Prior knowledge:
Layout: H1 2-7, E1 11-13, E2 16-18, E3 28-31, H2 39-48, E4 52-55, H3 61-70, H4 77-91, E5 100-105, H5 116-127, E6 133-136, H6 151-174, H7 183-200, H8 207-219, E7 230-235, H9 237-241, H10 249-255, E8 259-261, H11 265-283, H12 290-314, H13 323-333, H14 345-355, E9 360-366, H15 370-375, H16 380-386, E10 391-397, H17 403-424
Helix pairs in contact: 2-6, 2-7, 3-4, 6-7, 6-8, 7-8, 8-12, 11-12, 13-14
Amino acid sequence: xxxxxxxxxxxxxxxxxxxxxxxxxxxxxxxxxxxxxxxxxxxxxxxxxxxxxxxxxxxxxxxxxxxxxxxxxxxxxxxxxxxxxxxxxxxxxxxxxxxxxxxxxxxxxxxxxxxxxxxxxxxxxxxxxxxxxxxxxxxxxxxxxxxxxxxxxxxxxxxxxxxxxxxxxxxxxxxxxxxxxxxxxxxxxxxxxxxxxxxxxxxxxxxxxxxxxxxxxxxxxxxxxxxxxxxxxxxxxxxxxxxxxxxxxxxxxxxxxxxxxxxxxxxxxxxxxxxxxxxxxxxxxxxxxxxxxxxxxxxxxxxxxxxxxxxxxxxxxxxxxxxxxxxxxxxxxxxxxxxxxxxxxxxxxxxxxxxxxxxxxxxxxxxxxxxxxxxxxxxxxxxxxxxxxxxxxxxxxxxxxxxxxxxxxxxxxxxxxxxxxxxxx
Length: 425
């Protein structure tokens, strides 16, 4: 009887509910649709750990309206989208709100994203005061109110991100050229199924075998040999990947006959790790964890290099960017000490894209996101001086910006891109 009571009792700290280990099996955890290419694998890993997780797919105007209702209009657009998606889902009637929690990732940097949890708690308190908030972060934030992370869990998450990046890249390099409509989607589904089986049978660490399977699966899709406009997508982490945040940008580019080129999520993770090392180097902010971050970076970069080598050796596909090359590209434009938000990573990715034949770039930014406007839009002039052929369009995403206006701006960029492609041909 006492055990049952403990499972059904919500603990409160500082007037907000706390997710405890006793809730793990009974609570449904809602995850915002930030990473459509990666979360299917990441959620599979979480389910292996015993968590009941569901990826939210609601992306109607009601989501934005709920966000506007519960978030101050000075907060950034990603916060509004995430909170709106939570509230809209909880109001849908699909979930028992007495046994539901929400999960958010935190980078731990100077961006307002590190302060989302107080915003989420305040919004939930107004209508769903019993819903706890979990944090997935590696910066020591929100201790005692997050996931139980162990080494095995972390390694599976890391492998899932590497494989998610590769599937995303292979799909985007295949879909625009497929001879038979739908073959690329089937290849993606086959790859995701294979990777889930690999996670289940603990063969996810067989990097060479798994990478070769992914490449082989997409290589078997019959394609048309014709040039396409390649468009890179860079910018703030949420609007860069989230269909809700960027008005389904990848789908729009595919519908326009373009090849979307989306940099790897693992680049952002290594960016966060390297920033910790740069803090020690530039600002003498050393700590006991500095050595651990150095070891983590060495391991992550080693895996990335192997994937790049395998991609070059066994396929026709353009490999993902080498992170050390990204750092070299950043040094041409801006100091690596500029690390607020996505900081130096944005100009680094734009430079790397220009050097690998992706001349056209959409820089996706939440309106009012100061770090990204400085490091993204502010670096465009320098980049165009370095790469005169580069065709960059910064696009702001916020509740008042209509999808039509955003797409019209991109269409103007694509008109120039198509003319340049004809000239090259």
